[in-house]
What we know:
The complex is a heterotrimer of chains A (278), B (250) and C (232).
Chain A: H1 2-20, E1 25-31, H2 32-37, H3 39-51, E2 54-60, H4 62-70, E3 76-79, H5 82-90, E4 94-110, H6 123-133, E5 137-139, H7 145-156, E6 167-169, H8 174-183, E7 187-191, H9 192-202, E8 204-208, E9 215-223, H10 233-244, H11 246-254, H12 257-260, E10 266-267
Parallel strand pairs in A: 1-2, 1-3, 5-6, 5-7
Antiparallel strand pairs in A: 3-9, 4-7, 4-8, 4-9, 4-10
Helix pairs in contact in A: 8-9
Chain B: E1 6-15, E2 18-28, E3 33-37, H1 44-51, E4 59-64, E5 67-68, H2 72-79, E6 82-85, H3 96-100, H4 102-106, H5 111-124, H6 140-152, E7 158-162, H7 170-187, E8 190-194, H8 198-204, E9 207-212, E10 215-220, H9 222-227, H10 232-243
Parallel strand pairs in B: 3-8, 3-9, 6-7, 7-8
Antiparallel strand pairs in B: 1-2, 1-4, 4-5, 9-10
Helix pairs in contact in B: 5-6
Chain C: H1 2-16, H2 20-53, H3 59-69, H4 74-85, H5 100-124, H6 130-135, H7 141-151, H8 153-168, H9 172-178, H10 188-198, H11 201-227
Amino acid sequence: MKKLISLCAVILLAATGIALAAPKTIILATTTSTQDSGLLDVLVPQFEKESGYKIKTISVGSGQAMKMGEKGEADVLLVHSPEAEQKFMTGGFGVTRRLVMHNDFVIVGPTSDPARVKTAKNSVDALQRIAKSGALFASRGDNSGTHAKEKGLWKGAGISPDGQKWYQQTGLGMGQTLNVAAEKKGYTLTDRATFLALKKNLGLVILSEGDSKLLNIYHVIEINPAKWPKINAAGGKSFADFMVAKKTQETIGRFGVEKFGAPLFFPDAGKNPASLGL
Amino acid sequence: MTVPLLEARNLSLQRGGVDVLKSVSLTVRENDVLALIGSNGAGKTSLLLALARLLPVGKGDLLVNGEAVRGGRAELGYRRRVAMVLQEPLLLDATVTVNVATGLSLRGTPRKEQQERVDEALERFGITGLSRRSARSLSSGEARRVSLARAFAMRPEIIFMDEPFTALDLPLREALLLQLTQLLHSEGITAVIATHDCREVLQLCNRLAVMNKGRLIGSGTPDEVLMNPPDDFSAAFARYAHSFNCTTRG
Amino acid sequence: MELILDGIIEAVRLLLSGDSEVLAVTWLSLKVSGLATLLSLLIGVSSGTVLALATFPGKRLVAALVNTGMGLPPVVVGLFVTIFLWRNGPFGHFELLYTPAAMVIAQGVIATPIVTGISMAAIQSLPANLRLQILGLGASRPQMVWLLIKEARLPLLAAVMAGFGGVISEVGASIMVGGNIKGQTRVLTTATVMETGKGNFDTAIALSIILLSLTFLINLLLTIIQQKRRPR
């Protein structure tokens, strides 16, 4: 009997040992695209070293990230869904929102390009062609920033894809959605960074790009501690400051050049949002 | 008059909603070998379990050397002075040696002493050759002797046995009777044995008690009881004993 | 087919080269699931034994609940543990969410009913009078319980293996309560999902093979213990 109790105690200690080892932590809720591109794998260790904080990076869709912010379950957000973010800020959930970087979305599809997207005039035209040809389109369907951008584009094109046979909502992350599109030889909207990182396995090509509507803009939002006292406000500010700091911005600008021949993200801290069409 | 070793006063017990013991009183003196006889369902097993303090009694007292056994500590102390051998030889999934040593290891007997007592008990029951065998591989007769050896190895003050001779073939019965006679009589171990077997009863036991539907309806020396059998069962028992010309012990 | 072969080669390469990330992930898998199984063993075997031996009103209801618990969907456990552990939840101030401790808790909750249910059945399958006989040899109650547990060691070890198997392979709850954070809460299963999602199929297969081999080795060890010491 005594053996049982002491064994339980040892286990509890071991478990708490695992838990208590961490210094003051920051919960960063961000999107799967920033995670999958590998950018955070570079920035996070840098930040931890400089600041002494430990970051827990939880990558979910922008929608879920903002919900976590609303519930005070994250300290700082790095997201890319401007309209939803604005609602978030008007709701008073965030205390500051700063521009960090952008990249762009592209429409990718099979090399055979049955809907003839390659010759489309712009992104709206491209989507109209896809809808008309009934070619398969894979959507994230998960309220992520990418999904929000995609919905906006359909709206702008005057098309309602929901419920149509060729429109398939995966509810999954970008990498997996790209896999689905690749497997089914369909089209999808993706951020350039993720696409470049996964290109080699996919067999898809970029068919529409460069449209100003396809800009993908990232902001860092510090959660409002007034709503949730348990927020690590100092930590959140520290990370947000880090993201817009000159050195970090330079790192962001260089990321991916060696591996892919082109940068995956474009640093924008301090710029006038209007210049990006916001 | 000396205080009896074991005394039961008005023991009553219910099992599964049925009254299996109804106000049973009896005494067991040191060195007694008491036989409990009665038809199936008369309550012999229940009485044994109650006397061995393995079943909590509803009403009544159990006194050991005049003192009542009450409370967890006292009960454990008492249970460590006695031993119970159930009808079915429930052995552990281990070797015979480990099985026979069970009671000793429960009491924390030192290893060396355990081995000595085990060897002695195995020899008493003629099963030394089985010491390394797995309990699962034994025949029923061998298993029975192992379970008896297991109880005797502890040298209990009182031993309770439930039908030790059941389902044994004749040669085994003879052998077991001899072994038990030696053990009980020469070592002076007190015993209470529930049994059907007439010959074994009369050879081993100096006291006899008759149970009927949960009540103790008669007790005394075998001669006394069988001269005036209190019910049909004991009457048949007496006739059987007489026809075999069994000599009683006393 | 080629992909699987590539995966096997990649698995061996990763292990032999001592790739630190793979080793870290493997070691964390072992630690978390090992601890969870140990916890479930202690709680499960003792509760299962108590349930088997005790009689009380409502015993059948409790047994039914335990048996239902054996089939608890891990992802549901993950959801509820998350709700309990997040900052503004009842246990928020322990700051356990997104730590290995949270994963141990979630996996423990998943494994415990499994071990309890099988233990309960194991003890109940022992001969009914064995308990009495052991007491009749002078055992105290704790001694009796211990002997019964030893008697039932075969099915009880099966219970442990079932519990372990259930949690080492678990992914839904582990992602939810752990967050799959690199270097902190990433284990073999969650890493496999992530690598698959990224399209790195060879890495994903390699991780799967490591996971399978690990599970096999541990079960081999437990099986040897379970089946040993059976005298002729």
